[in-house]
């Protein structure tokens, strides 16, 4: 791709999200989302592969549907209440519509089916953009909505955590697994959205860190299926020994960073007298943990047989920068002791 | 007289919708889109939004041009299916029947009144809705216009980038 | 607490900085010094029971025996693993010892925690090193299955525990072990309170393990390398008993009725797992099931909630920790020579390794609770407190004791007596490392006869 075009597209990608961040007006926020969607499309299709084109088309259609629904919701809101402000939604109908539209945009559970299909068609860096940067704008909108119907978000959250875990169980493709893991994490975020928005924000940041390091690890290993993970010990021994910790952190096991958002969310839920929902969400994390565990089995805890020349690549210098990976990996493993500082930092 | 004209516009709107929906070749489909756009704008004019209709027509004309060009470029069939060919005509007839049945459901005498355009209330108002929109756009909406223009430019880029893939065998 | 915790943390740089030749001796010496330093925890003169108090950690008579046991186990694990890791590359050996050290760090923080939630976090944190021990360093393909069982059984129990602890914190405002006994007793009447009771105990019952949720344990023991089996039997199971003793203070009014099914399950499990031991062919699996059987007694003693029950449970936990760890070490010495865990294939070893037979004899006697040993002390106290609760338990505990004796005898005769099979021709003689290892297991056990008040817990 021409570097000028690439620069333009990346700039617009940033512009769209920033526009959505900055706007208090529904129309402008919608426009930001549309710019965002448009800008990533050539990036998704850049590899001229029919599978990528298919993914792009699916992505475009779902995002356009969601954006149209969002526009409809904001128009309805303006019609019913005379308000265009995002934070002044007072009628339940447009609020629910907008929440559902945003749920479709980020891929929450009953509306998540596009996400694995789309992510499977992309290469890993684009998939990284799709599952991190593209979630930011819709989630900020979701954070600003004043939820009218509390059970809607809880149902969305619980189904997401359950289906996110359940769907990934049967996958052998890393990108599909990551898509389901994204759905499950978003479920946790939405679960606590109406009680403690700052906690959603914190969860989002930690999820982004962990996903970032996961995608970079897989990218470094150049692997997209569980089977190809098996030889990663020969490519990057240190990373493949840290990777199971990172995956278990993604699954939320205690002394790792991933436990922090789960802990805080469960605490908030029990504070709101939602202990059954908290227990269900906590147990659904086991489903996700199972496939993370399977990945770490394949990656580091078993030694796959390898031919003699296959064991040599660790002597070569890695072709990518490892500094971002090092930083994000450290953050995604060892932030749990810093919980008080982080919760203070991410107070909205 | 106005009632007949608006009836004509609404009927044309429905017919051209059917013309798009019954799935002809992209070439004809985009022609149907033009017709939908034209009739829709005429309906808006009929209900009093002249400026809005003007803007809409301009945008539609620009967009339709692009759609025409790219549908011609991307999907030039060797044997195009117009509305006369078998499957398409069948679908069209089906949709038409569907519209008739659906309208038969709602057909009551009191709806007949609504078919005319009652602009009388708005003519009494000191400021028409879409004129107000014009003044807002010129006073405060400048940055918004710039962003919209940017977004359109981006769309052009995106379309260029995506259509380049055609030559590399991306569409199969 | 830092007196032990800091040297344990510094053990990691020691491991990575020492030259290859001195790796094992220096790690062993360092960890042994830590274990010696940890003996100071026995000196507890505080009237409140809490000593060595820091803002987050403290010891009391209940936790200090377990803490010392944890510290004592690390040099023994290093000693036991030396042979089977000798063929591994150097960095992997270092990684392995680091893993064992991290396990000790987490365990010290778990037993020393004064906050329930910190105990919970560390209780869970021990899962990761143990999982890696089983799945990375085990020998057979089934180890992955065993690791999955281990992780998911424990987590399925302990995630409700987290929610239950958070509910407790909402109700009382604190989770500190120092203040929880003095908080207002909770009014537990509704059905959801009963669920909460179950949530509080389930994690520990799975960890113990209670009969019925014990399936992960034999698998994990069979597949784990020797150090994994040792720490699992000696300390990790005791996390469950320790947590239950801590938790039961808050569950006051409900435990009286709700504990019936669990006590019955535990005692039934003593008999059932003992009978399973009697027809076991796999040596490690036999020792694992005998652990389940002993832990059943401990569960019964704890759920009775009398001072005798608690004391007996603590004594039995410590004694069983040393005994079963010694048995696993002995099984491993056999395994390293014969490369099989099947008892039919590795029998009659008295002819080949006579001194080992002496160790086997003492360990088997300890396992069946021979009179002066602390094992008997613990079992007697538990059995008598159970008897005080209901006469009928004597049928179960008495039969359980008998079966324990039977399978200990079976294990001893099967592995040691009889003619040496013809296929065993070149056995290594016993190393002095192995004698040292077993001696360091059994010596504390014998010395505890002289001063059992060290492990009496609150009754002291």
Automatic annotation (TrEMBL), chain A:
The chain crosses the membrane at residues 60-80, 92-115, 151-170, 177-195, 201-221, 233-254, 274-293. Residues 23-286 form the NADH:quinone oxidoreductase/Mrp antiporter transmembrane domain. Its EC number is 7.1.1.2. It is found in: Mitochondrion inner membrane. It holds the Pfam family Proton_antipo_M. It catalyses: a ubiquinone + NADH + 5 H(+)(in) = a ubiquinol + NAD(+) + 4 H(+)(out). InterPro entries: Complex_I_Subunit_2, NADH_DH_su2_C, NADH_UbQ_OxRdtase_chain2, ND/Mrp_TM. GO terms for molecular function: NADH dehydrogenase (ubiquinone) activity. Residues 289-342 form the NADH dehydrogenase subunit 2 C-terminal domain. GO terms for biological process: mitochondrial electron transport, NADH to ubiquinone. It is a multi-pass membrane protein. GO terms for cellular component: mitochondrial inner membrane. Keywords: Electron transport, Membrane, Mitochondrion, Mitochondrion inner membrane, NAD, Respiratory chain, Translocase, Transmembrane, Transmembrane helix, Transport, Ubiquinone. It comes from the Eukaryota. It is an enzyme of class 7 (translocase). Belongs to the complex I subunit 2 family. Core subunit of the mitochondrial membrane respiratory chain NADH dehydrogenase (Complex I) which catalyzes electron transfer from NADH through the respiratory chain, using ubiquinone as an electron acceptor. Essential for the catalytic activity and assembly of complex I. This is NADH-ubiquinone oxidoreductase chain 2. It comes from Dicentrarchus labrax (European seabass). The lineage of its organism: Eukaryota, Metazoa, Chordata, Craniata, Vertebrata. The gene is ND2.
TrEMBL record, chain B:
Keywords: Electron transport, Membrane, Mitochondrion, NAD, Respiratory chain, Signal, Translocase, Transmembrane, Transmembrane helix, Transport, Ubiquinone. It is an enzyme of class 7 (translocase). The chain crosses the membrane at residues 37-70, 82-107, 144-166. GO terms for cellular component: mitochondrial membrane. Its main location: mitochondrion. The keyword Secreted does not apply. Its EC number is 7.1.1.2. One of its GO terms (molecular function) is NADH dehydrogenase (ubiquinone) activity. It catalyses: a ubiquinone + NADH + 5 H(+)(in) = a ubiquinol + NAD(+) + 4 H(+)(out). Residues 1-21 form the signal peptide. It is a multi-pass membrane protein. It holds the Pfam family Oxidored_q3. It is found in: Mitochondrion membrane. Belongs to the complex I subunit 6 family. Core subunit of the mitochondrial membrane respiratory chain NADH dehydrogenase (Complex I) which catalyzes electron transfer from NADH through the respiratory chain, using ubiquinone as an electron acceptor. Essential for the catalytic activity and assembly of complex I. This is NADH-ubiquinone oxidoreductase chain 6. It comes from Dicentrarchus labrax.
TrEMBL record, chain C:
Its EC number is 7.1.1.2. Residues 1-17 form the signal peptide. One of its GO terms (cellular component) is mitochondrial membrane. Pfam families: Oxidored_q5_N, Proton_antipo_M. One of its GO terms (biological process) is electron transport coupled proton transport. GO terms for molecular function: NADH dehydrogenase (ubiquinone) activity; NADH dehydrogenase activity; ubiquinone binding. It catalyses: a ubiquinone + NADH + 5 H(+)(in) = a ubiquinol + NAD(+) + 4 H(+)(out). Residues 113-403 form the NADH:quinone oxidoreductase/Mrp antiporter transmembrane domain. The keyword ATP-binding does not apply. Its main location: mitochondrion. It is an enzyme of class 7 (translocase). The chain crosses the membrane at residues 62-81, 93-111, 117-134, 146-168, 195-217, 229-248, 260-279, 286-304, 310-331, 352-370, 390-415, 436-459. It is found in: Mitochondrion membrane. Core subunit of the mitochondrial membrane respiratory chain NADH dehydrogenase (Complex I) which catalyzes electron transfer from NADH through the respiratory chain, using ubiquinone as an electron acceptor. Essential for the catalytic activity and assembly of complex I. This is NADH-ubiquinone oxidoreductase chain 4. It comes from Dicentrarchus labrax (European seabass). The gene is ND4.
């Amino acid at each position: 791709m021409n570097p000028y075009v690439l620069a333009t597209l990346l700039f617009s990608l940033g512009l769209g999200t920033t526009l959505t961040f900055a706007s208090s007006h529904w129309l402008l926020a919608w426009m930001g989302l549309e710019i965002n969607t448009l800008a990533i499309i050539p990036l998704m299709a850049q590899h001229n592969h029919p599978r990528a084109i298919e993914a792009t088309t699916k992505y475009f259609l779902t995002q356009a549907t969601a954006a149209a629904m969002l526009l409809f919701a904001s128009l309805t809101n303006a019609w019913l209440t005379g308000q265009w402000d995002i934070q002044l939604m007072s009628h339940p109908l447009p609020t629910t519509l907008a929440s559902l539209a945003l749920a479709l945009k980020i891929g929450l559970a009953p509306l998540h089916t596009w996400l694995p299909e789309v992510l499977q068609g992309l290469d890993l860096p684009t998939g990284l953009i799709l599952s991190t940067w593209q979630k930011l704008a819709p989630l900020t909108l979701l954070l600003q909505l004043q939820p009218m119907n509390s059970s809607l978000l809880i149902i969305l959250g619980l189904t997401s955590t359950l289906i996110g875990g359940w769907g990934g169980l049967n996958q052998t493709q890393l990108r599909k697994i990551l898509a389901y893991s994204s759905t499950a994490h978003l479920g946790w975020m939405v679960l606590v959205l109406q009680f403690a928005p700052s906690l959603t924000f914190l969860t989002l940041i930690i999820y982004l860190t962990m996903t970032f390091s996961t995608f970079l690890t897989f990218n470094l290993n150049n692997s997209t299926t569980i089977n190809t993970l098996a030889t990663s010990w020969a490519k990057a021994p240190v990373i493949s020994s840290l990777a199971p910790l990172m995956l278990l952190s993604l699954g939320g096991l205690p002394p790792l960073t991933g436990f922090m958002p789960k802990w805080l969310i469960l605490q908030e839920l029990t504070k709101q007298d939602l202990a059954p929902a908290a227990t269900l969400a906590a147990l659904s994390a086991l489903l996700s943990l199972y496939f993370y565990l399977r990945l770490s089995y394949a990656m580091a805890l078993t030694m796959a047989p390898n031919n003699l020349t296959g064991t040599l690549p660790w002597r070569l210098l890695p072709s990518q920068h490892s500094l971002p990976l090092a930083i994000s990996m450290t953050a995604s493993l060892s932030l749990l002791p810093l919980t008080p500082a982080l919760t203070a930092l991410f107070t909205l | 007289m106005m009632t007949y004209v608006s009836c004509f516009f609404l009927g044309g709107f429905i017919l051209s919708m059917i013309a798009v929906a019954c799935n002809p070749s992209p070439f004809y489909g985009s022609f149907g889109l033009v017709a939908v756009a034209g009739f829709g704008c005429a309906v808006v004019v009929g209900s009093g939004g002249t400026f809005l209709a003007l803007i809409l027509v301009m945008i539609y004309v620009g967009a339709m041009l692009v759609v025409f060009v790219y549908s011609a470029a991307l999907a030039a069939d060797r044997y195009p299916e117009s509305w006369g060919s078998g499957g398409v005509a069948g679908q069209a007839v089906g949709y038409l029947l569907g519209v008739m049945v659906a309208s038969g459901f709602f057909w009551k005498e009191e709806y007949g009144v609504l078919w005319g355009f009652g602009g009388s209330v708005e003519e009494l108002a000191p400021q028409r809705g879409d004129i107000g929109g014009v003044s807002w756009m010129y006073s405060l909406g400048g940055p918004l216009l710039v962003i919209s223009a940017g977004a359109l430019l981006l769309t052009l880029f995106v379309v260029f980038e995506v259509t380049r893939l055609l030559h590399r065998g991306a569409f199969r | 607490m830092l007196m032990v915790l800091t040297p344990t943390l510094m053990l990691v740089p020691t491991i990575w900085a020492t030259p290859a030749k001195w790796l094992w001796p220096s790690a062993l010496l360092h960890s042994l010094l830590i274990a010696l330093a940890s003996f100071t925890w026995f000196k507890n003169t505080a009237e409140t029971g809490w000593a060595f108090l820091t803002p987050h950690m403290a010891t009391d008579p209940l936790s200090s025996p377990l803490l010392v046991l944890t510290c004592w186990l690390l040099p023994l694990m290093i000693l036991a693993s030396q042979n089977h890791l000798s063929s591994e590359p150097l960095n992997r050996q270092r990684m392995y010892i680091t893993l064992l050290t991290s396990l000790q760090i987490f365990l010290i923080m778990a037993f020393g925690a004064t906050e329930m939630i910190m105990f919970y976090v560390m209780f869970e944190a021990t899962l990761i090193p143990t999982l890696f021990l089983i799945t990375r360093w085990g020998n057979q393909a089934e180890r992955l299955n065993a690791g999955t069982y281990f992780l998911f059984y424990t987590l399925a129990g302990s995630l409700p525990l987290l929610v239950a602890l958070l509910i407790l914190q909402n109700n009382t405002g604190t989770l500190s072990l120092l203040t929880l006994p003095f908080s207002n007793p909770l009014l537990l009447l509704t059905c959801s309170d009963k669920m909460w009771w179950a949530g509080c105990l389930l994690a520990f019952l799975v960890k113990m393990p209670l009969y019925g949720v014990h399936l992960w344990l034999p698998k994990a023991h069979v597949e784990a390398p020797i150090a994994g089996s040792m720490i699992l039997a000696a300390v990790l199971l005791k996390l469950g008993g320790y947590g239950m003793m801590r938790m039961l203070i808050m569950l006051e009014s409900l435990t009286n009725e709700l504990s019936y099914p669990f006590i019955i399950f535990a005692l039934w499990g003593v008999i059932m797992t003992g009978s399973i031991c009697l027809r076991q062919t796999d040596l490690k699996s036999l020792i694992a099931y005998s652990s389940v059987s002993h832990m059943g007694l401990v569960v019964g003693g704890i759920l009775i909630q009398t001072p005798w029950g608690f004391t007996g449970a603590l004594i039995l936990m410590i004694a069983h920790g040393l005994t079963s760890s010694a048995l696993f070490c002995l099984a491993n010495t056999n395994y390293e020579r014969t490369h099989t865990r099947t008892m039919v294939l590795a029998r009659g070893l008295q002819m080949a390794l006579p001194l080992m037979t002496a160790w086997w004899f003492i360990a088997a006697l300890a396992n069946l609770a021979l009179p002066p040993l602390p094992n008997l002390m613990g079992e007697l106290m538990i059995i008598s407190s159970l008897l005080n609760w209901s006469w009928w338990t004597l049928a179960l505990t008495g039969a359980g004791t008998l079966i324990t004796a039977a399978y200990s005898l079976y294990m001893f005769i099967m592995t040691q007596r009889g003619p040496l099979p013809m296929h065993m021709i070149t056995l290594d003689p016993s190393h002095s490392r192995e004698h040292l290892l077993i001696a360091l297991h059994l010596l504390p056990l014998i010395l505890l006869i002289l001063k059992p008040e060290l492990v009496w817990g609150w009754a002291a």
